[in-house]
From TrEMBL, chain A:
It comes from the Bacteria. NCBIfam families: sigma70-ECF. Keywords: DNA-binding, Sigma factor, Transcription, Transcription regulation. Belongs to the sigma-70 factor family. ECF subfamily. Residues 23-87 form the RNA polymerase sigma-70 region domain. The keyword Transcription regulation applies. InterPro entries: RNA_pol_sigma-70-like, RNA_pol_sigma-70_dom, RNA_pol_sigma70_r2, RNA_pol_sigma70_r4_t2, RNA_pol_sigma_r2, RNA_pol_sigma_r3/r4-like, WH-like_DNA-bd_sf. It comes from Zhongshania aliphaticivorans. Residues 123-174 form the RNA polymerase sigma factor 70 region 4 type domain. This is ECF RNA polymerase sigma factor SigW.
């Protein structure tokens, strides 16, 4: 019998490791792929995915059954991924060997996009890499997860109107980057 | 009206949400009044939907679907070795119900004050008469002021 997420969360609040394993098998791949489509690096997506599930485990006792678990997971994933560039920059500054690389924005862009260039369609991935992170996020939720605008709005913490606007701009910019124009 | 619609589509694109409000308003009038406008609008939307579908397909095909590697799975399963946060008791609905409403707090305070007053009074903590023998009532005393005055004059 399939146990729903709410019941698993109730068990997780009590420290049930089996419930956590069930939630991992159910959601980790989707969270990983959403993150990958925003940060465009497998390694970073895996780190962020781990952070999402660490938060889920740590805060499970405080869980309030008001939103869908997937909405919560995507919201945390989105926030972590959107702040990712800032965190990467901080990491670069802390690493003195790479301090010079931090000063060169082009090298940072290359670092973010390089890991994915060997996979899939280079043109598309380059086009995605040139979009702002929030545009990549809205495209991931719309195209990859096929979520409704109001669900994306709830995840991203913005109005449905703002989502539509970002989605429109993201699609237009992506088309332009792909050479299709508008 | 068709010319207005064509100009708007050319200048502002096919997403009506990005149009100025007055153009959005005129669009609804145009499509309500003119069949030609309605067909043009539907054609524009079909074109957009087709382009969006193509873009979505390009996106889906172009970005690889990652699988959770065994190393990643091990990392995720190790998370349970970490301690969990304690529940925020105050935010739990069950605990919220046991909280006392403000009027009950006021009533409880009043009752507590009354009980404290009775206890202190009965215990004699406030008005203890240590020199009880010296306290007496002078029954022969007169409070008539005129008598005092008369006595002074005498």
């Amino acid at each position: 019998m399939l146990i729903d997420d709410s019941e698993l969360m109730r068990r997780l609040a009590g420290g049930d490791q089996q419930a956590f394993a069930s939630l991992l098998s159910r959601h980790s791949k989707l969270v990983l792929n959403v993150l990958y489509r925003i940060v465009l690096s497998r390694d970073d997506a895996e780190d962020l995915c781990q952070e999402v599930f660490e938060r889920l485990w740590r805060h499970a006792p405080q869980w309030r059954d008001e939103a869908k678990l997937t909405t919560w997971l995507y919201r945390v994933a989105n926030n972590l991924a959107i702040n990712f560039r800032q965190r990467v920059q901080q990491r670069y500054v802390l690493n003195e060997d790479l301090l010079m690389a931090e000063c060169d924005a082009a090298s940072l862009d290359a670092e973010v996009s390089a890991p994915l260039l060997g996979m899939g369609d280079d043109t598309l991935l380059r086009a995605l890499a040139s979009l702002p992170a929030n545009y990549r996020a809205v495209l991931a939720f719309r195209f990859y997860r096929d979520l409704a605008v109001k669900d994306i709005a709830e995840i991203m913490g913005i109005s449905a109107k703002a989502v539509e606007s970002q989605l429109g701009r993201a699609k237009a910019q992506l088309k332009q980057n792909l050479g299709g124009g508008e | 009206m068709q010319k207005f619609l064509a100009n708007t589509l050319r200048n502002f694109g096919s997403n009506r949400n990005t149009w100025p409000r007055w153009r959005q308003f005129l669009l609804s009038i145009c499509t309500a009044l003119s069949d030609a406008c309605r067909q043009d609008w539907q054609a524009a939307q079909s074109k957009v939907n087709a382009a969006d579908t193509a873009l979505a397909q390009t996106y889906i095909d172009g970005v690889a679907e990652l699988a959770v590697s065994s190393a990643m799975a091990r990392r995720l399963h190790k998370i349970t070795a970490q301690p969990q946060c304690r529940a925020e008791l105050a935010s739990e609905p069950g605990v919220m119900k046991t909280k006392m409403p403000f009027w009950q707090i006021g009533f409880a305070s009043a009752m507590a004050s009354a009980v404290l007053g009775v206890a202190l009074g009965a215990g004699g903590y406030v008005a203890e008469l240590s020199d009880f023998d010296a306290a007496y009532l002078e029954t022969s005393m007169t409070y008539e002021v005129s008598d005092w005055l008369a006595g002074d004059i005498q």
